[in-house]
Design brief:
This protein is of the alpha/beta class. It has helices at 2-14, 85-90, 92-104, 128-137, 173-183, and strands spanning 20-21, 23-24, 31-34, 44-45, 48-51, 57-62, 66-72, 77-83, 111-115, 125-126, 145-149, 167-171, 191-192, 218-223. Strand 7 and strand 8 (77-83) form a beta hairpin. The longest helix has 13 residues, at 2-14.
């Protein structure tokens, strides 16, 4: 049923029955350059795809993480990236752009990027195990965090400053991704990066955190259809 739904979606979107290339996403920095089409080996392990092949769709599946779609219209090079907090820390986004430059002579200034719906900073509270490496990696961009006062006090912790943190840290994945795109040379005016929060709007979008019982995913696709 899922495959037939996808096929119908692709046909409605493109007017054709085009092949869809997906990945076994593992929150990695592994990138695949698709230089030829091999139907018998479509699904590989990784988190980013790059191609110049026409009539092929690249797909990313998400349910709170980021989907990033990039195109250089002059070179006709496209990329699809999956990135959660692990992928951002591993640099899958800038590494994909670097590969587009080295393999396909892409100029980042000519690229257009779209960041899809993901969990927003309004709903994405992280612990120190995530906050600390992000503060180090994005030390020049502290606005990726929204810091808020806790809504309750801890009578034990309040007497122990080493155990009690009076704030919570809310991570803005989209802002972190935008920073990486700009640092890689993309024009900020060519980056669409203010997506709605999947957790807040889980009646419209799939959200793993909001509906953990469901394993459904959203599909972001990009392709050179002509």
């Amino acid at each position: 049923k899922q495959e037939s739904t996808r096929n119908q979606f692709i046909k409605d979107l493109t007017g054709e029955k085009l092949p869809l290339v997906l990945l076994n996403q593992t929150h990695s920095e592994k990138i695949h350059c698709l230089n030829r089409f091999a139907p018998e080996n479509l699904i590989q392990e990784g988190d980013a795809l790059i191609t110049t092949l026409p009539k092929i769709l690249l797909g990313i599946q998400v349910a709170d993480c980021l989907s990033i779609l990039i195109v250089d219209t002059s070179k006709r090079v496209i990329a699809a990236i999956h990135a959660g907090w692990r992928g951002l820390l591993k640099g899958v986004v800038p590494k994909t752009i670097a590969l587009m430059q080295s393999h396909y002579s892409v100029n980042p200034r000519n690229c257009i990027a779209v960041i899809g719906p993901s969990i927003g900073s309004c709903c994405y509270e992280v612990g120190t195990e995530v906050a600390i490496p992000f503060r180090k990696t994005f030390k020049n961009h502290p606005s990726i965090f929204n810091t808020r006062l806790k809504t309750h006090t801890d009578p034990i912790g309040s007497h122990n400053p080493f155990r009690y943190d009076p704030t919570t840290k809310h991570l803005n994945l989209s802002a972190a991704c935008r920073y990486q795109l700009q640092s890689s040379g993309l024009d900020p005016h060519k980056i669409s990066s203010d997506p709605p929060c999947t957790f807040c709007h889980n009646e419209v979008f799939f959200s793993y955190r909001a509906n953990k019982a469901e394993k459904a995913r959203m599909l972001a696709i990009i392709g050179l259809v002509c």
